[in-house]
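Lab notebook, bench 4. Still working through the backlog of constructs that have no structural model yet. Next entry is a single chain of 165 residues. Request: give me the structure tokens for it.
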Amino acid sequence: MQTLNFWQKLYIPEILKGMWTTTRHFWANVLGRRHTVTQQYPEQPTYVDERYRGRHRLMRKEDGAPRCTACMLCATSCPALCIHIEAAEHEDPTVEKYPGSFTIDELRCVFCGLCVEACPCDAIRMDTGIFALAAYDRGNFLYPRNLLLGDDEPINIAEGKTPAE
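Model written out:
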């Protein structure tokens, strides 16, 4: 074991080095020589990269119908088992089936993007850029098909909405 010399036993030089670093950073920030990285979140919009995986959405065909064919590949590839699809028969004989019920449990989702990669018809995407998912009730995190298609809007507390409004 190495023996400590006199200055190492005092710890004073190390304390002064640490205080010098703290003081230097303090005055650099006070005098404005350094760029501030803090964002005032609700007032100042946050930059979201185009590759960011945000809230899910379902895509529509040109005629307005959902692109999803209820093939169950997204639900099968999901490691969190948060996608629940119930297939239904379509009235049109050229269309085999469609999702009668399509629900995503955002509380279980790990936002891995495997559902997007597994979808053969590009029906599900995560490119909304919405990252502030907040609600008062756990049931508001079960996103049904009409919300994923954009017909309804979720209650988002982070945007200033409250259940009373």
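Notes after review: The beta strands are 57-58, 83-89, 97-105, 124-125, 142-143. Helices lie at 6-10, 12-30, 73-77, 114-118, 145-148. Flag for follow-up if needed.
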